[in-house]
């Protein structure tokens, strides 16, 4: 099993550009989530999904969209990148349909917005 | 939503000493409390977790305690080693997980 795979690993964008961060898991996990990690602020929940076709907002959803068309994939879209979105983004998945199970994290995407 | 506070933000100990990290949470409905270790440039990895129906759990040198009445939980690391140096995050979940801001632990040889 590859676990949780995130692509790309690094990305530099210009302000106003859009892009999609990819996340895929091969563990048949129902629950998937996106976090951003900024220095001194821990991991903040952006969006999460309890199963295919179902998504919901976390703590810091503004500026981001998600969709969950399959169990395996949970892409995160930046609509119009802003410097405040410079961060490390982690995707995670867990068994069961809720987030109160051990979360498996991907390696992260390091995103810089100029 | 759930709010998790974590203290201290930095902790430095001598090798062989114990380290304690404390977290408080706001939502009494939270029922799952994991701890993650993150080494520099790596992904967070689960080291121990506890559920609301348990007061204490131990795994070798690591233990977690939970006080539901006071809404706080703690991570205890005994006989610390240099390889324990990392950032540690607590989290609490009612169904979606919220994390503390992290504690940078340094173990000096």
Labels describing this entry:
heterodimer; A: mainly beta; seven-stranded mixed β-sheet; four-stranded antiparallel β-sheet; globular; B: 109 residues; mainly beta; six-stranded mixed β-sheet; 11 strands
Please provide a brief summary of the model:
Chain A is 0% helix and 49% strand. Chain A has 114 residues and is an all-beta fold.
Describe this structure in words.
The complex is a heterodimer of chains A (114) and B (109). Chain A is mostly beta strands and 114 residues long. Chain A has strands spanning 4-7, 10-13, 19-25, 31-37, 43-51, 54-57, 64-66, 76-78, 87-94, 104-105, 109-113. In chain A, the strands form 2 sheets. In chain A, strands 2, 4, 5, 6, 9, 10 and 11 form a 7-stranded mixed β-sheet that branches. In chain A, strands 1-3-8-7 form a 4-stranded antiparallel β-sheet, with no helix packed on it. Chain A is globular and about 40 Å long. Chain B has 109 residues and is mostly beta strands. Chain B is 0% helix and 58% strand. Chain B has strands spanning 4-7, 10-14, 19-25, 32-38, 45-51, 56-59, 62-67, 72-77, 86-93, 97-99, 103-108. Chain B contains no helices and 11 strands. The model of chain B has no long low-confidence stretch (mean pLDDT 95). Classes of the chains: A mainly beta (114), B mainly beta (109). Chain A binds chain B through residues 33, 35, 40-45, 48, 56, 58-59, 90, 98-103, 105-108, and chain B through 1, 6, 9, 31-32, 34, 42-46, 49, 89, 91, 93-102.
Distance between the termini of chain B: 41 Å
Which structural class do the helices and strands of chain B define? mainly beta
Oligomer: heterodimer
Helix percent of chain B reads under 10%
> Helices and strands of chain A: which structural class?
mainly beta
Low-pLDDT regions of chain A: none
- Largest sheet features of chain A: 7 strands, mixed
> How do the helices and strands follow one another from N- to C-terminus of chain A?
EEEEEEEEEEE
Number of helices of chain A: 0
> Over the alpha carbons, how many angstroms does the gyration radius of chain B reach?
13 Å
Total beta-strand segments of chain B: 11
